[in-house]
Design goal:
By secondary structure, the chain is of the alpha/beta class. It has one domain: Glutaredoxin. The chain is built from 4 helices and 5 strands; from the N terminus they run βαβαβαββα. It has a 5-stranded mixed β-sheet with strand order 1-3-2-4-5. The longest helix has 16 residues, at about 30-45. About 35% of the residues are buried.
Length: about 100
């Protein structure tokens, strides 16, 4: 199961220094919903090496505003507390896994 990012925990997780993938989504967004099994699978596969989770832009807004999320799904990638990548639209699992592997090194 993917980590649930909220405005109250997202900055702490990003600052932890671990590689982080934040999937910005909303429940009414068809492509976002179709990404859920991929995000859940990656969260399980990378557990302990990276934090992979979802950030509901309908319920939370701070991160979405800070990183100017204009379309969803958008995936934000962080390493050592800094944003190092951004992917917009649905993505294949292999693409996201490759990005995570790069962050883990």
């Amino acid at each position: 199961m993917a980590f649930e990012f909220t405005d109250s925990n997202v900055r702490e997780v990003i600052a932890s220094g671990k590689p982080v993938l934040v999937d910005c989504w909303a429940p009414w967004c068809g492509p976002c919903v179709s990404m859920t099994p991929i995000i859940d699978s990656l969260a399980a596969e990378y557990e302990g090496r990276a934090v992979v989770g979802k950030y509901n832009v309908d319920e939370e807004s701070d991160l979405a505003g800070e990183y100017r999320i204009m379309s969803i799904p958008t995936m934000l990638l962080f390493k050592d507390g800094n944003m190092v990548g951004r992917l917009a639209g649905s993505q294949p699992k292999a693409t996201l896994a490759a990005k995570l592997d790069e962050l883990i090194g």
